[in-house]
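Supplementary Methods. Inverse-folding protocol.

Structures were first reduced to a discrete structure-token string of length 330. This string, shown here, constituted the complete conditioning input.
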């Protein structure tokens, strides 16, 4: 056999090997491992952070924008916020009779009105129906929807430099009507009603449309302030003064009665144990599969890319859709 044929065979073998490898990794990535393994009755696992002698505290992370973008599924779904899995974690922890308290570790700029309200209601249900203490530990940011879900907590802590507050509602869109006109671009719309294309990016908004949207924002803003009034035992006038969309550091939030103490996650867990009078086993609920350093690195990289692409898709497809948000936007 000639040298050229040996080289051709070697190249063919390499191509075949690489192709098989890509197929293998693709199959792994798209597999929903919760169907193959029992992940504590849900699409997540539990890992013990600290072993105690009595009681149990569940720690749940809320990291990323609070939006329901559908289940990611698969091995590489560990990056970013998954609303369905987070709600599942809250439900499992609340209904578990061995769990004495839940600590939510929050790091978010906020997100959707509906999703934030769903988390808020699940927290209140854990407190009232299952008599489970719920604490919130704020990370670098817990703004807008992040504060909305924290308000009903039995105890809220933050770092001195945490960015929180931004109590308010926002709805925005991009309008390029003048640019379209300048470039001779027209947008033809056939609609069933006067307001069907409200917030269209290709025409100016009318005063009537603006008032309709303002009424919606005001309605949700009233709900937000009521949540803070009830959760923080503040007067309506006090909350109104703090609810102009402004941000607060952790120190400022403490001064204004928006949080209860300064400290990190460990401080919050210790505070819960002290208040409950227990030496608890601390269990971390996570959808990170933790499959070893090499696999973990690959999973983290691919998950990060997947989340970025998903957020970009959301931005492109929904940026002009009227959507009420409890969200801090810089």
């Amino acid at each position: 056999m000639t040298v050229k044929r040996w080289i051709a065979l070697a190249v063919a073998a390499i191509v075949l090997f690489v192709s098989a490898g890509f197929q293998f990794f693709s199959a792994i990535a798209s597999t929903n491992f919760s169907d193959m393994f029992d992940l504590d009755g849900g699409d997540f696992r539990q890992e013990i952070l600290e072993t105690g002698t009595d009681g149990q505290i569940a720690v749940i992370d809320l990291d990323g924008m609070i939006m329901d973008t559908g289940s990611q599924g698969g091995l590489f779904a560990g990056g970013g916020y998954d609303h369905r899995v987070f709600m599942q974690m809250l439900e499992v922890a609340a209904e578990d009779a061995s769990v004495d308290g839940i600590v939510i570790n929050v790091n978010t700029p906020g997100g959707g009105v509906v999703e934030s309200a769903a988390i808020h209601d699940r927290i209140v249900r854990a407190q009232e129906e299952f008599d489970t203490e719920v604490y919130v530990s704020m990370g670098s940011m817990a703004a807008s929807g992040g504060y909305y879900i924290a308000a009903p907590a039995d105890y809220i802590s933050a770092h001195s430099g945490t960015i929180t507050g931004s109590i308010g509602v926002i709805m925005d869109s991009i309008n390029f009507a003048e640019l379209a006109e300048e470039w001779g671009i027209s947008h033809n719309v056939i609609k069933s009603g006067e307001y069907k294309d409200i917030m269209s990016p290709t025409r100016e908004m009318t005063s009537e449309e603006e008032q309709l949207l303002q009424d919606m924002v005001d309605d949700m803003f009233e709900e937000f302030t009521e949540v803070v009034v009830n959760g923080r035992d503040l007067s309506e006038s006090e909350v109104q003064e703090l609810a102009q969309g402004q941000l607060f550091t952790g120190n400022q939030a403490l001064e204004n009665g928006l949080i209860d103490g300064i400290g990190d996650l460990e401080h919050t867990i210790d505070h819960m144990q002290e208040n409950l009078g227990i030496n608890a086993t601390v269990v971390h609920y996570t959808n990170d599969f933790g499959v070893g350093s090499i696999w973990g690195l690959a999973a983290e990289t691919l998950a990060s890319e997947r989340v970025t692409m998903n957020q970009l898709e959301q931005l492109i497809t929904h940026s002009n859709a009227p959507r009420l948000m409890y969200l801090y936007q810089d």
